[in-house]
Amino acid sequence: MSKLSALTFTRNTGAKHTATVVFFHGSGANGEHMQEWVNLMTKNFKFPHIKVIYPTAPLQPYTPAGGQPSNVWFDRADINQSVAEKLDSVERIGVQVKELIKSEVDGGIPINRIIVGGFSMGGALSFYTGYRWERNLAGVFAFSSFLNNQSVVYQDLCKSSGTKFPPLLQIHGDSDDLVDLTWGRNTFNELKKYGVNGEFHVMSKLGHSINKKGMNIISDWIVNILPDV
């Protein structure tokens, strides 16, 4: 499996870079596409003090696409919340995500000034990142995203009672025909059950997509968690 193939950036617009947001795209897309899509939806995703990174997933065989190569963060047995996770695949991308975060920390950004988030599979990767690998992050956001039933994330959280976890912002369309709203809400409720505090926003008449309203909610939430210093 190849490594992260590209990093697309939206630089901080001010003189000082004091925080970072990592935005993971959905399956089959790339970082540049995610950046363009976000910019089409909102003009508010540029910040004076925050750099936004849009990585591109490795090209690898993807089982739901008949094993054809696709830019995906990890492989899945099926697009179904009841199947088991392919943990070997998840852990391989975890190594690279942790390296990416470490590079920001080594560059002078404290880990509690870094937020991770994403769309669809990118949001799922953010759940693994913030609630399994890097629990000192500033926050996690997810748009149209999921964790499978019996996810290893839930199992790990269950063993960490009393731990403070990054706050969560989760957004989901009520007309999502790929990741049903119930799946997204179940994910949120399970995370909440194990100690994750957050917000769940439902977007009316929205399918498996982002939208302007949701992106503006995310933008405001980011500024609230990562104020200029």
Structural features, described:
This protein has 229 residues and is of the alpha/beta class. The chain has one domain (6-225): Rossmann fold, CATH 3.40.50. 34% of the residues lie in helices and 21% in strands. The protein is built from six helices and nine strands, in the order E-E-H-E-E-E-H-E-H-E-H-E-H-E-H. The protein has helices spanning 31-41, 87-106, 121-133, 152-158, 181-193, 212-225, and strands at 6-10, 19-24, 50-56, 59-61, 69-71, 114-119, 139-143, 168-173, 198-203. The chain has a seven-stranded mixed sheet with strand order 1-3-2-6-7-8-9, with helices on both faces. Strand 4 (59-61) and strand 5 form a beta hairpin. Pfam families: Abhydrolase_2 (PF02230). It comes from Papilio xuthus. Residues 12-222 form the Phospholipase/carboxylesterase/thioesterase domain. GO terms for molecular function: carboxylic ester hydrolase activity; palmitoyl-(protein) hydrolase activity. Keywords: Hydrolase.
Compute the separation of the termini in Å: 39 Å
Look at the helices and sheets and give the structural class.
Answer: alpha/beta
Largest sheet: 7 strands, mixed
Portion of residues in beta strands equals: 15-25%
Sheet with the most strands: spatial strand order: 1-3-2-6-7-8-9
Helix-strand sequence: EEHEEEHEHEHEHEH
The CATH homologous superfamily corresponds to Alpha/Beta hydrolase fold, catalytic domain
**Runs with pLDDT <50, length 5+?**
none
| Helix percent band | 25-40%
Give the radius of gyration: 16 Å
Q: What would the average pLDDT be, to the nearest integer?
A: 94
- Number of helical stretches of at least 4 residues: 6
